[in-house]
Amino acid sequence: MMLKADGFEAATVGKVYDLATSSERLVYSFEQCVGILVKRDGMTSDEAIEYMEYNVTGAYVGDGTPLFMYELID
Fold first, then answer.
1. Could you read off the pLDDT of 23-63 as tens digits, one per residue?
2. Pick from 60, 14, 15, 8: which is nearest to 31 by CA?
3. How many CA atoms lie within 13 A of 32 on its CB side?
4. For the residues of the chain, what is the DSSP string, one character each?
5. The whole model's pTM is what?
6. Nearest 5°: phi and psi at 55?
7. Which of 7, 4, 9 is nearest to 64 (CA)?
8. Distance between CA atoms of 32 and 29, rounded to whole angstroms?
């Protein structure tokens, strides 16, 4: 079962199939999630990054836990 990151639907970029757990997982853009927190909750960029790292990306809730992608910039 794919789990969702509540409030970050606009930052969804796709899904992957995790061979290790035989489950599909949603993939979110980390940068877009930070942008949502800045705009929606009035956080600074630093506050939003800290919030994401501690409360969102650091939370494992079993098979289907969402993944957060960091975009590569050339």
1. 999 999 999 999 999 999 999 999 999 999 999 999 999 88
2. 8
3. 14
4. -----TT-GGGEEEEEEETTTTEEEEEEEHHHHHHHHHHHH---HHHHHHHIIIIITT---STT--EEEPPP--
5. 0.91
6. -100, -20
7. 4
8. 5
